[in-house]
Specification:
- 48% of the residues lie in helices and 0% in strands.
- The protein has helices at residues 2-14, 48-94.
- The two termini are 35 Å apart.
Length: 125
Amino acid sequence: MMDRIEDETVRYLFFLQVTQNAPVMPFNEDGEEIEGGDGEPLNGSSGPAAAAAAAAEAQRQAAKSTMEDFTRNIQRKKEKELQDLQFAGGDATSAPKTVNGGQKVGRNDPCPCGSGKKYKKCHGV
């Protein structure tokens, strides 16, 4: 769980983008056109501004696909962890428990290691 939290935190920090004086984009996050002040779409521009907008859109699409791939990989890891935990959980319940068959040693009895001390002063600490 801690690894997952660390992975997600690093993912968010890695893709964090600080912008200053961000340009107005012709499309919003949903892909709908944003209209200018006169009611016309802003995508009718040409020249260097259009080339810059196209390059920015290509970069945005590349970053989006990279982010989707990264998210898919994290999801696969989570699913694999859950499957491993499910399989490991079934084995842990069927494992035999160890039982000590010897007699219990009292606190004030001599230690079975042969030191001559009381159990509470030797191995019972």
